[in-house]
Design goal:
133 residues; alpha+beta; Arc Repressor Mutant, subunit A; three-stranded antiparallel beta sheet; 6 helices; 12% strand; disordered N terminus; Npun_F0494-like
Length: 133
């Protein structure tokens, strides 16, 4: 019986990986949220204040609108996707293959590095101009 070929990941350009990594590191969310999203979908309600702070998902309380705004940016750069059920789009989110790849890199020697002021400025500019290509 022939063995299955090894799974090959989606090829991403270095620019895509860099932009996604920067967006993830500059987001207002903490690593435990993304680790939870590796395993399951996370509803928006569990990320907003005070639940998000209690679970270590955020450093400070976020409103639902602020959290959704940030999630939309992470969707645009390819890190997150919205869950869909039989009724349509839900309020839950999970990682895309790109998000999984970035988190796997950060589980190893490369950690979830704190962004510099220049990183934050560059990410804000990308976000403002919606440079997602």
């Amino acid at each position: 019986m022939p063995s299955e070929p090894p799974a090959v990941g989606i090829p991403y350009s270095p620019k895509t990986l860099q932009r996604a990594s920067l967006a993830l590191r500059c987001s207002r969310f903490c690593l435990p949220l993304f680790q939870a999203m590796q395993q399951r979908s996370v509803p928006l309600g569990s990320v907003v204040a005070p639940q998000g702070m209690n679970q270590g998902y955020t450093r400070r309380g976020l409103t639902e609108a602020a959290a959704e705004w940030d999630f939309k940016w992470l969707i645009q750069v390819g890190i997150l996707r919205r869950e869909v059920d039989g009724q349509g789009i839900t309020d839950s989110f999970r990682l895309t293959p790109l998000g999984h790849r970035l988190l796997e890199q950060w589980q190893g020697p490369e950690s979830f590095a704190t962004p510099t002021m220049g990183d934050r400025l560059y990410n804000a500019l990308n976000r403002w101009l919606r440079l997602t290509l």
